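Q&A FORM
Asked by: J.P.
Topic: structure of KLLA0A10329p

PROVIDED:
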Amino acid sequence: MVGTIEMKKVARSYMGCQKCKSLKKKCDEVKPHCGYCKKRGFQCDYSRTLKWGGRPFKDNRVSKKMKFEHTYVVEGICAVDLNAATGKQATKVKKNKKMITKKTVVVKEEEPVQEKQLQELVQELEKPPLSEPVIEIERVEEEGNSPQRVNMALVSSTPLSPLSLSLFDGSKDELDDSIAGSQRIGGFHNDDDDLVQSLDLEFFMPSISLPSLMIPDLLLQSPEMAESFDFFVNQTSKLLVPAPSSIYTRNPFFNFLPRMAMSNTALMNLLLVFGANHKHKILQYQELSNGDSSLVANDLLINTFTNLMGQLTNFDSRNSDSTLATILLLAAFDIFFGDKKQKWRTHVYGARKIMKERISNDTGSVMLSNNSADVEQEYFLLRWFAYTDIISSLSSTNSINNIHKLTTLRYEMETTIKDSLMQKMMLLKDIEYFTGMEVICLWLLAEISRLVNEKETATNNIFPQDLILRALELDHKMVSYLKASELKRNEIFQSYYLSKTDAITTESYGAYRILRATNQIFSLTGVLQLKRRVLGLPPSSPIVIELVKNITELIETWIEFGSSAETCIIFCIFSCGCELMAPELHHYRPLYLQHLLSLIQKGVSSAEQARNIVEECWSSNKQWWDIFKEKSLDVTFAL
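REPLIED BY: S.T.
REPLY: Here is the structure written out as tokens.
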């Protein structure tokens, strides 16, 4: 007689939360947070997504007619908010009438400034401040009325995502409906999603949903590719600029670069590799990675180089914005992840050739202006190149054997004098969110880089007197300007911002205070390079020790662990960390090691390379540029 086995019937959870359903977990249906989400720290969502025929509803005309209570339509999908429908949570759907605000600052016409006019800036900073800072807001009403201009003192807004606005392919009604949805509908996930979110919920939670009609076939055909794109846009891009993402909504790596990649295959492939590799490095450090993505990454990189070679051999696309952006992103990729094959220099050299061919002025110099890098694509690429070129030169050495000697490109400065400079200071716009420093300080760093390069590539060991004089003058220019500008910023803070206690102003000035610190850290690190690599002061010199102490205090006070500012000053952390050889500086060593470890945890693999060199400097009492020469290390930290 054959025995029968009675199968136990498993009770299905039909009303479980979205997270448990996506992970195929049994949900206890406890509201507002189920047990599984509460234990893992996930966002618990009981809203429902209804799909007809298994596919999103595509007829926009019909979808607009669906005005059921507690429902909204996102990309043709009807979503139901059960919490609002059951009355357990008051949810108010946003109306279709939405006002989009745009900040515009009216400044006077800028005048060209050369090196001899630097004293005018210092003298101008000593003048009394202007009137109360005012931001001019341009409002555009939905009905198509003419723009209305109103003056509002110290008003800040939270605009819609620039990328979402520029790539959204539907009508404004659909856009407002999309914004009204409290949860993100759709998206791409894999088995690592819950692991990633458990590492750092705030850092990894995605915030952008791209409309399907604007996504290239490469992203539509592969959920993994779409997720890599999403990861770069929402996570990696935040680490490439020093300003906090809560304030810097016009981040070009979030805005311009992904939009350019939508129409350029080489740039898109490289962006996907960057995002996938970044996520893989974070999981790898936490020992949570369950696969090797190197094969897919290699295929994408091969496609990138193939497409890039096609662009370089085409006369029309050779010097295009997309070609320059691809080459700069290749350099950033190698620097970010620790370039073992030492190809970063080749990429910077290639970008330099493109810039020389694009220069239209008679002097053959790159012009640095006060036009913000997040205003237009052209200024973004120019500032990105200048920053990479200058900082990579300062954080590397040209004395090793390499076919690409980075002969320093000459930079000229075009800045704002008189009222406009003061107005920028009072509006907290004088320090760039993109680079974390003033344009004039970036220009002075370029001049320091020229002197360092001149000293290292000299054919004889004779120390020319004119080089000493130029180094001393440049040292004085940087220090005196930095001192005068910081005194003026302190006066403005005491006069206008100290009494402001509202949340918007507090947050804005908090971000600006970080930028003040990065501006000083970059500038003083440049002075350190000048004193050590050009003037030849020893690490035991009281001048060097005092300078390292000042930089370290700024890092300790204003640079938080895991912040984007920490990533962008990796060159400063590396350079100053290598100088901690004097006994009175030894107690700072744990601080620098902790910052480098924090960067490694965030997936910045080059920080591990920096840590090894820093520790070797401490153990051998050698200078980092001498270690580079001995070991033929051609690395840089220009992030």
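FOLLOW-UP: Residues 22 and 189 are 9 Å apart (CA to CA).
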